[in-house]
Amino acid sequence: MEMGKVLRYYRVKNGMSQEEVSESIVSPSYLSRIENNKTTVEKETLVLLLQRVGIDYEEIQSDEGKIEKLLHQWEEPLLDNRKDECERIYKELQPMIHPITNTQLQAEYHIKKVRAAIILNTYDDLDHSLRFMNDFYDTLSSRNRFFYYKHLGNYYWITNNAEKAKKYFEKGLAEYSSIHLSELEQADLYFLYALSLYVGRKETVSFSYAQSALTVFQNNYKPRQCLKIHIHIGICFSNIGDVHFALSNFEKAKTLAEEIDDMDHLGVIYHNMATMHLRKREISLSITYLMKAMKYKNQTSLSYFKSLVLLLFVYSQEKKTGECLKELNAHLHFADKLPQDNNLTKEFWFFYYFLKADEKEWEEYVKKVFLPSLKKHRKIQEMERYSRFLGEYYEAKGGYKKAASYYKLALDCNQVVDY
């Protein structure tokens, strides 16, 4: 610990001069050198100086040991996203961290606090932590640099800066050493990196990193991490059109979610299974899984509405007008409360106007609001899906010119449909 820093902090806090503190122990000039960490000092002398400013040397040493122990204990719940344990240790550490705390311990605390903030969904007080980490980056050990890059990359990932997250993950991979870190930490970073690669449309490389992470988590029996990776791998297979292997991974994820009673992910899993059965034109099974997905999701969430609008799409495609109207009426008050600039909300209103408004009003909504919004937000797959829907609608009505323009728009999207 930087005892000179501690000594100066409490001397200033107590309103004492260097002459008062050093009297009959050392000279004021020597005390100045001690406070600025420009010389070594005997333990006996340091104990006397600290006593004069009202501090017990042994108690400070004991606090440092406690902080080191808690920071080490924090790693496992942070890795496993165990919210309650993560919060408990955070609350223990928080009052122990002071400006006088060893700089390296403070830096490690702030680095791990970033991951804790992600788990606990508390980002309000992160600014100080981010500044401290950057200011004292040069003091970090190789081990803490790994955590710095992994947790900061995780932060940028959560805050929708995928490209910056990817760069930090890559630097974290370069810092990894099996001497200082467990293979589980590497696997966790592999999976985070895989997610950032997927967003960058590098599905093959993303799959490779996800598979490497899965092997480690399986060997260490980490079912929660395994189920997330199976979902991701399933989506990768879905995007290359391999329905069989996509469904196989979604089934594995479902089994794990049921085993550990993870209801939150079951909704996501059932939604993805529904999309695969829709690809196979197994409409009845797809509808069943979409309804199950909605059962496990929060009714006021956008994730819930993602399943709902797909169900509305399927009902409309299958000419199940009664069922479609029933769902629209049942969810109208929820749709009013959702962000109206969100594309999922706009998809809901697309079907609402399609079935409830006159054709002129619906066409106005499609041309001036709906399709421009999908284009603006680069929702290519949705553009393909709804352009094809519109093409089929106008073709059935004999409006071949309009149908042709929408079919052309669908072809221009040139994407595999990912329901």
Automatic annotation (TrEMBL):
Task: Tell me which SMART domains the record gives.
Answer: HTH_XRE, TPR
Domain named HTH cro/C1-type is located at: 7-60
Q: Which organism is it from?
A: Halobacillus litoralis
Q: Which molecular function terms from Gene Ontology are attached?
A: DNA binding
The protein's name in its UniProt record: HTH cro/C1-type domain-containing protein
The record ties this protein, via Gene3D superfamilies, to: lambda repressor-like DNA-binding domains (1.10.260.40), Tetratricopeptide repeat domain (1.25.40.10)
Q: Which Pfam families match?
A: HTH_3
Q: Which InterPro entries match?
A: Cro/C1-type_HTH, Lambda_DNA-bd_dom_sf, TPR-like_helical_dom_sf, TPR_rpt
Q: Mind telling me which SUPFAM superfamilies this protein's record contains?
A: lambda repressor-like DNA-binding domains, TPR-like
